[in-house]
Amino acid sequence: MAIAPASPRLPLFSERRVSVLLPLPLAGAYDYLVPEGMEEPPPGTLARVPLGRREVVGVVLGPGEGEVEAARLKPLNAVLPLPPLPPSLLALVDWVAAYTVQPRGAVLRMALSVPDALEPPSGTPAWVATPGVEGDTLRLTAARKRVLAVLADHGAMPFATADLAREAAVSPSVITAMGKAGLLHSLTLSREWEPPRPDPDQAGFPLSEEQGAAASRLRSLVSGGFSTTLLDGVTGSGKTEVYFEAMAECLRLGRQVLVLLPEIALAAQWPDRFAARFGVEPVQWHSQMGQAGRKKAWRAVALGRAQVVVGARSALFLPFPDLGLIVVDEEHDSAFKQEDGVTYNARDMAVVRGRLGAFPVVLASATPSLETIENARQGRYGHILLPSRHGGASLPRIELIDLRRHKPEKWQPEPVIVEGGAKVEDGAKDGVVDGNGAASGVQAKSVVRHEQARMGWLSPPLIQATREALAAGEQVLLYLNRRGYAPLTLCRTCGHRLQCPRCTAWLVEHRRTRRLQCHHCDFQMPLPDTCPSCEAPDSLAPCGPGVERLAEEALFRFPEAHLEVAASDTLPGPKEARAMAERVRSGAVNLIVGTQIMAKGHHFPALTLVGVVDGDLGLSGGDLRAAERTHQLLHQVAGRAGRADRPGRVLIQTVDPGHPVMEALATGDADRFIDTETEERRALCWPPHGRLVALIVSSTDPAAAQAAARALGRTAPLAAGVDVLGPAPAPLSMLRGRHRHRLLLKAEKGVRVQGMVAEWLSRTPIPSSVKVQVDVDPLSFL
Q1: pTM for the structure as a whole
Q2: Which residues on adjacent β-strands are paired with residue 401?
Q3: Which of 161, 282, 621, 649 is the most exposed place for a label (fewest CB within 10 A)?
Q4: Contacts of 382 (CB under 8 A, 6+ apart)
Q5: pLDDT of 354-387, one tens digit each?
C-alpha cells in the first residue's frame, strides 16, 4: 500500500523508499521516501512518519514495494535514536498476526505499548572540574577547595548540582559561581535507567539430588538452541529454584531472561526469592506499574540493560535485543490468554518466540495443561519430573466432606446495641435497655437488636479442624473463589434480581464498600435502601457467599483468630500482596479467607490446613475445560498446606464426592484423571486433539448483531473434518453494552483453520456497526 501526499508540493527527495508498518489495525505496510542526506534505515528502525494530518511512529520493514510513483509518496520525518527492533520480534509480530487472524499493525501495537518510551529521558545538568585552570589565580575559598576535592576524589566523575553541594557541604550558589568563574564547566548527564545486574555466581539455594539433576538438565539446554521443556513438579518441589539455575547459566552467557507469571499477585513474593538468589530484584512489567515505570522498563529492555524481566503476558512483546531464555511459570493458568483485542495465549506464543529466536523455553507447573502434557507425551517437549517436595516435606492429606451428610449450621450474630433507641431493621427482635443494660421500660436509652440467624457455609468437620489448627498455633486458609460479599442480591418482596445494565450478569455486593459491582465491565452503584422494582424498603437480601460473607462467619466461629481477606479487591497490586504475605509470615495473620489469588506462588511454612468451601464451584456451565480447570485450581490451593516440617491437611466440601475430579484429588491419582479426560477429548475431537476457533459477533444494535451472525452462519465453510456450531446468543449475551452472538468452528487436528476463517470473513459482508472478534484456541466460552 502507499500514502498519497497531503500537498502536491514536496521538496526534492531521492526515490529510495522503505516499507513502514504502523501500530494501527491495518494488515499491510505503507511506502515512504528516505530524504536526501539520511542513511537508508535498516529493518526494525523506529521512524516518525506523517499519516494524514498527524504523525505516528512506525517500524521500517525493508525496501518499499515500488508500486506507487515517488511523487505521490511522503518522506520519513525522523529516525528515532533507539536500536532497531530485533528480527525475532518482527517475525513474532508476523507469526502472531497470521495465527490469530489479526492485522499485523494491531500486533505491532503491543510491542510499542508505551509511546513515551520512544523518546529518551531528559538529561540532568552536571558539573566537572575544568582541566588546566590554576586555582591559585582564582582566589580559591575553603568552600571552593572542598568542591574541587570532591570532584578529584571521584576521578572527575560529573555531579549534579544538588549532589555536589551535599557532598562538599556547600550551598548550590557556590557551585554556580565556580561555573561562572571557569573553575567548573557544565554538561548534561543521561538519565537512562541502569538496572542493577544480577550475580549468577552468588551462592544459590541448596538443592536436593533430584533438584540438582533437573537443574543440570536445564543448564545444558541454555546454549543448545531452541527447545521446549516441561518442568513438572508437585507443589513445594522447588521448581523455582531449579529454573533459577538455568537463568544463572543464561546470565553467565551474557544474554537476557524473561519470566512470565500469570497473576500480578505472584510478583509479590517472586522478586524476593529472585533477590535472595541473585542479589538484586529483577525488572518488573505488569499493568499495575505507572507510566513512568513502564517507560523505564521498556527502554532498559530495548537498550539491553535489563538482564532479567519478570512480567505478565504482555512482557512477551518487549524488544529484547538478546533474549536467551523464557520461563513460563504456572504454564497451565488461563490468565496467560489475552481475551480482548488480539486474542493470544502467551504460553504458546512464548514457545513461538523461542523457536524464532533459537533459544530454550521452560514451562513450569504442578498441574500442566492437557495441551502441554500431550506435547510432552508426543516428544515435542522435553519432560523433567520433580515428584517429591523439597526438604523432606510431605504432600498434604486430602479429605472430602460430603455436604449432604455434614450440612453447615446456621449461626446467630451477637446482639447489637443501637444507641439512642434508633430504628431497628425489619425482622429483628427488640428489647429496650438503659445505659447499664437493665430493663427500664419507658425510659429507653438504647435498643438491643437481635439479628436473624444466618446461613452457614462451613461444615462441622471443617469448623472443628480449623479450631484445632488455630489452637496449635498453626495457620489456616479458607478458600472460596468468589469475590465480594454475595454473588446475587434479590428482593424478598417481588423477587427482582439486581443486574448490570450493560451486561447479562448479576451485580455482586461488596459490603466493605457498600456498593454493587459488575465483575465484567466494572459498573458500580451504591447499595440501594429500597428495591429498584417494587420500592419495598429494606427488602434486598444477599444470596450465596463471597469471601467477605465467609469472613463474617469465620469471625463468628473463630473470634480469637487474626483474619485477613485476600482477594483482588483487597490486594490490587504486588505492593499490597507483598505486605499481606509478610503479615502471614510474621504470624500477625493466622486465618486467611481467600480467592484464587492465594492458590499459587505463596509459601507459608506455618500454614497447615486448607479448607475448600465450595469444591464444586466451576464444574458446571458447559465449559469443556471445566473439570481440568477445577482439578488444577484445587490441586494448587491444596498445595499451600504443609510446605515445611508440619504435615498438611486439606478438607474439600462437596455435594458430589463421586465426581472424577473429587476422586482424583482424594486418591492423589492425577494421572488417571488426565488419561480419562484426554480420552474423552480425543473421542469428541476437542483440544488438544482438535482445533477450535470462536467468532464473537457484537454490536450496540441487537438486530444488527443477530443479522451479521446469521449471515456468517449462511456462509460458513463446508469441508471434510470441519463443523460450524451456531450462531447462538452468547452465554453473556450482552457485555459492556454490546449484544453478542457466537459461532464455533470445530476442526480436526490437521486442518489449517486460519486460512479457512480468513476466507470465510472475506466473503461475508459485515456492516461497520458490527464487530467480529476471532478467537483461535478459545479458553472462554462466555
Answers
A1: 0.86
A2: 653
A3: 621
A4: 217, 221, 227, 228, 229, 230, 376
A5: 999 999 999 999 999 999 999 999 999 999 999 9
